[in-house]
Fold each of these.
Amino acid sequence: MIKLAAQMLRRRIGSALATLVALTVGVVILTALGAMVESGLRYRPAAQQYAAADVVVAHRDLSFTTKELGDVNRVTVALPEGGTVPAALADELRSVPGVATVVADVRVPVVGSGPATGHGWSSAVLTPYEIIKGDPPAQAGDVVLDARLAGDAGPGDRTTLLVGGSAREFRVSGIATGAGPESVFFTDAQAAKLAANSGKVDAIGVVAEPGADKKAVAAAVGKVAGGTGAKAYAGSDLGAAESDEGSARTLLITIGASLGGYVVMLVGFVVAGTIGLSVRHRRRDLALLRAVAATPGQVRRMVVAEAMLLGLAGAAIGVPGGYLATEWVHGQFAGRGFLPAGFPMSIGVLSAPAAVLTIVLVAMLSALAAARRVTRIRPTEALGEAAVEPAESGKVRLVFGVLTLAGAGTAGSLTVGAGGQTALAGAIGMLYLFVTAVALLAPWINRTSAQLLTPLLRGVWGTSGYLATKNLKASAQGMTTVLTALVLSVGFGGSVWFLQDNLQRQTVEQVREGTLAQHALVSPAGLPGSAVADARAVPGVQAATGVRRTSVILKVLGDAEAVPAQAVDVGGAATLDLRVTSGSMADLGADGVAVSQLQAGSSGWKVGDRARFWLGDGTPVELRVAAIYQRGLGFGDVTLPREVVAGHTARNLDDQVLIRTAPGADADRALAALAARYPGSALVASADLNQQLAQDLAVSAWLNKLLIGVMVGYAALAAANTMVMAALARRRELSLLRLVGVTKRQVKRMVHAEQTGLLGVALVIGGGIAATTLVAVVNALTGDPVPYVPALGWVAVIGGTALLALVTTVLPIGRLLRVPAVESIGTKE
Amino acid sequence: MTPTPGAVAVRTEQLTRVYRTGGQGVTALAGVDATFARGTFTAVMGPSGSGKSTLLQTAAGLDRPTSGRVWIGATELSRLSETALTKLRRTHVGFVFQAFNLIGALTVEENILLPLRLADVRADRRWLAEVVERVGLGDRLRHRPSALSGGQQQRVAIARALATRPEVIFCDEPTGALDTQTAAEVLALLRAVVDEQGQTVIMVTHDPVAASYADRVMVLADGRIVRDMPQPGANRIAEELASLGRTVQGVR
């Protein structure tokens, strides 16, 4: 059967090209996604700073159990600020058998000739760092510089380091070299003092005695550490204790998993569609096979074998393509900062075979589904004169379609009633359900719309329009793939793509409208608390607020999520307008919290409730909800008093100081002087701050747009494939029309009318779905009932569809028309 | 009367076929009893809608009768599953249709071998050589059907039908799309197949000239056999058909 299938395939490769292209592109996408997931899963950051340690105790993630519908789930989330461990634990660890050295490591962000991290000198053994010139630090004012930072400086020189937001002078006692990120070393006491986090350290490094069983030591250390929420990292996990590249790993896995499922679904849909169409077009051949000799099973096997062969051919082209795509994605991701530059992308040892297997299986299963149709081809059809496509659309399909539509409606109404994440989930569910309903109901939609469009098409195109409506009705079944793929492109593309635009725009707008301050003092190195006080003292300054950006961890629908948050000091109300809808920012005090409407909706919080969550370093807090505000996109979903987060962020400094000056006051010079007092800081107009924000947002939107671009592109490809196939199969029909007296021009006009009808309906339905979803989501996220669609967006959607019609139908039909009608009427289709 | 194996190729008993379209039943065959002896060439004739094509389809196992029974050789068809029916067709029945007889993707040789290949039976090379010789296509075996004339295509179809040495060959207007000269060649070939190889041919046609190549002419009207006679010559057949037309019109 395979041999027969191969023979048949070889001689009609043209019409099989559509399926081949869909399968090849499917393999390319899946291989790339597989490589991403594989890289994510295999990624074990190599230990650098702790390379010489045997065990490191650190608190890098938070775990808890939730109970959802009786299922106990263990949820683990990486701590956005990296947690701390009690310093006292170091003493306990010293008594563990087999332990030689225990070092309590603190990290102090410093800026010298470049950004670096300060440690106590005893941490040097964990890397190890070795002195190449001079001596270890002996006094509080001594520092050992990393050779990479030292430049010309040598032992005995003075050097200025930016620590805690202020410049301090140190004496260089020595120069050291070691692996990992750039480090400087103070005396242990000085490092602890600078870290200003009493009783807590960043991590504890343990070196085992020579000859000790390292596994046993690690287990014993883990036991002692277990009570504090910290974890013992050893062996190949050691790198995870120092690296926050877990987010890159999660990103890759999430992208691969979410997009992979969609692509598999789409490949199945496209392949079933194109194979179904090829079965339809070869109806007479298949009927002849049935009449002459082939059992229904044999014909089905032949169709499935064809799909398998096409799948394998697609794999042969797709796998190298997938590798190229992986390379490209890796480069782009690293270039845009989604991945650390050195992130190793494994070139899919497993992903390529997995992708090929998936695609071939999906192709065969979809072919099997399409081949069920073959069973219904009666051998007597081989005797008939014309190949008439029977109108057959199952009742089961209709019932499921109507049920799905009802489900979409329910999900839609859910979105209106609920708030927060529930509304979002409802809107996305609605999007999926709507598209599925359209896919199921497509034959009926095509037929009904052909009926409804009859007066319009006839009015505009006359006789050609009349013929077009008849053709639309007759090909209702065959064009289901086109309708579905286009609705999917427009529906998904329109909602998700424009959602990004809306989010970007809303975020920037919220920040612009919500920032009452005209100036901002910003510093990549961070600003100490004194900066706010100094700013307030400047004549003409009405108010100044220190703002610290962080994240907190909230339970959301049985899962944990890091949510962007800001911490402000008192007086925030004068520089920020978060558009409070209930409660008051003045009530924030030292133990309150303000949350966005979206977050309040998701967590079910009202003003006066007790909100329980975790700070960025994993510290649990319980705070009084003081206010609920609207501008969550611009300022984060959670606003905390600075007192609450003090000591719980990695840097423990403010990111910016917002400064509001009195109208007419000329404080520019004094403020410039203020900026000069804090090295590394700069005074910017708050409008410029917005621009930076817009650029940052554009970078993250790029990723989402890339993903949606792949989805939409693939769906459009599916539509294009089917349309080209359908157009080329019309040779005989068009010749017949011309022989009975329809002019070339009329045929062309007929095709135009058909395309307008088919694509117009797809645009209207897809656009409707996109609009509904967009309104629901944008309303839930921003409270804005009218989403924003850029003018270019309209042009892209409508122009893209028109281009699709032109390339896939109008041009091929034009080519068919160039052949004299008499020539093609004789040939078999 | 019991079927006599060896002597009877095809037999039908009270064959009825009713098509249901939109709730209304249209009777295409109203109880046809017919016996086709081995080694004979029968022309089935009749006006459009007389049921001649339906008789061919049901007798050949392409379509199932509403009631009544069909034997091909000694096998009764009504109890066979679709798959069993297909297997019977590919070894015991040959087909030649009016047009679109061949799979465009396969060469002439592959088309001829198709039934054997689907049956997973090794081809008898000597027999095939003889068949190909017989239909006169020796030099066209590697061509695709699109490179052949209509008459050549019909000869390929006849070769395919002969390839399995079937019990019977059913032809549905085999010369309907051919010119007179080519049609005569194809009909002569069918005649020779009966005379020289002892094949059984049942041919549906509306052309008295084509029917004149047969041994026996059976005329259907309104789903019943109205004439069943030894082949009396083309002119006589034409007259019979014409008178039948008058009778039918008169009745209506």
Note: The mean pLDDT of chain B is 83.
Amino acid sequence: MRGFWVRLFFLGPAGVLVLLFFLLPVVLTLFLSLTDLSTVTFSQPRVVGLANYLELLRDPSFPLILKNTLKYVALTLAFNVFMGLFLALSTNLLPDRLGEAFRALWLLPRITASVVYVLIWQGIAATAPYGLLSQVTGVSVNWIQQYPWAAVILANGFVGASFGMLLFSAAIKAIPTELFWAAAVDGAGIKATVRYVVLPLLRWPILFVTTYQTLSLLTSFEYILLLTDGGPGFYTTEVWALYAYHLAFSNYYGNARFGLGAAMAAILVLVGLLVSLLYLRLFNFRHLLEVPRIEVE
Amino acid sequence: MKGWIGVLGFALLASGLAQQTITLQAWTIGPEEASRTRATNLVEAAEELNRILEAERAPYRVRVETSFETTSWDNYHRRLLLAFQSGRAPDIVQTTHVDIGAYAEGGYIVPLEEYLGRYRTFQEVVPALWSAVTYRGKRYGVPQDTEARPLYFNKTLLSKLGWTSSQIAGLAQAIREGRFTWEDLIRVGQEAVQKGVVRPGYAYWHRPVNGPDFYQFYYACGGTLQNPQTGKLVLDRTALGCMYGLLGRLVQTGVMTRDLLGMPWANWHNTVSSGQVLFASAGTWTWAQWATQYYAKDHGGYDYLWRTFGFALQPAVRPGGKPVTLSQPQVYLVTAASRNKELAVRLLSLVTQPKYDAKHAVGSAHLPILRTTYVLPEVRNDRFLQSVRYMLDYTTYQAMSPDWGVYADAIFRGISAVEGGQLSPEAAVDLVAKDLRAKLGDRIEIR
């Protein structure tokens, strides 16, 4: 019995946090998604069952938003993981101080406030005489409006890549030096070392980065909101989470539809769960948790 | 004697202590800087109210705490909504009249009928503005200002294009009489682009974000927004097709840039007011906004504007058709959360006086709401206000409905699809009709 209390004592604080900030919002979101809560009905919301979900299914923009979300997550994720990996590998091949300097540089977008970061992008991309790129190239267009997807993916990617870079660098540093010596003795060059020594040992961090970033990309929209606000034109870069935000909180006329927004968020929770399970399967999570077969003291 | 002074002093002290200060909170928005009088007029009216209260020997005084939003309507609406929902709404809220439908249905604001009859100042308000604040037969707000939305044209660029000064001077009248239509504007715009007077896409600009201006096209195309009998919103497919067709053509002919939607307001104002765009649809307040912010501020202010720009109604779509403009009156609303509703309305009755109305109108280039304001010398002598006043005869309004926001969002979605070149006007009409049918069911009439 004493063991139970000790466990509760240690797990309690974290448990309460998880309950309050993770589980409760999900339950609330699910409940909200079954009501017609909006600006208009705020004083007397009604429970409308699955009406919000049906409305989403009938929404003619639904397929486009879905496609945009897939495109955004897939391309940004690819950029983040590969760029992160590339940065980690390349900066580790450099002398330590130089490598660290480069990594610090890549952290800048992440530590810059998102609004400031996007203001810089806008400053670079605006039409002449306001924009740097237009001035330099002599082609006066709004580059973000012209290439909205490139802007969205790169702006997100520059922030996201540093996440993978940090984790992968740390993981590479943690690989016992003996393994590199052994590889060198066996005649492996840089390519073979990366292929047969580093990458297999990075499986865990790669799984983690991929899963974590997929989930955070699915729900993130702040940079898109600030860069293109889902435009230009007809929902060109509008993704699921942004659409939910627009429906529930933001538009010129201030008509917020919380119920509908919650339904979209609820679907996102479900998708997130499914994706996580899929990844665990794909990366053979159980195998990763096995007791290591090599142990270097 | 000393004893009497003591008693008197004590009595004064006691009356001073007993006097209560009631704080009224008021939230206002420009977002343009020049409209700050929406907040400061309230503060001045409160001083006036305090003098009256003093004369009445009332045991309380009023203090007004105002905030003035200068960012965007989107932010302001969100802030209001969160305040309403957390039960911490201010006493008075200034917003556009179309919000009344949704806010009244949501129970955030209260009808003012029982108070309005008590104050004489309200009787001078232009009657049409009372209809603009009426929802389900009750008046929910006190009009704050109104305006028209002109088409500005750049006189310097027109003369570069070879127009004579009498041609330029006659343009507003030609538009008013339906002799200069959107087709003419497209023709002139294309010519300006071809001759290099403006950059491609810089011959005509409308606003860069969602908003009321677009319904001017819809009205010019003969559209109706609301069925007066049923109060239901109306989607006129023919008029919407005509409007989308026109907007699409503006882009395809190279008259209007495809990059327009989503452009930051600051860039928009700087580009237009610095003389790089031939025609632009904006509001009367834009005149004051340009003079006090952006490019014109440092380049001669009003003198520069009068030299450079002319203004007219939004043209008709076909020869002999009716030109239009649109007004979106601003209103002061009293919130359900206010604990001093009666006092709030009393304050509003004082701010609804010609002197405040005139100060705001002259300073911000909005139009007065009181008939009696037009006779004041500062308004009579204001060249701009006098020059745009006739536009109110051509004005239209948006529809007052709790579903207006949903409707307007769908229409705007169609606009962005057509201008972005993703949908044909016909396909956009179909999409919007389908979307609104799904969202509003039988609360919308699609014709």
Note: The mean pLDDT of chain A is 86.
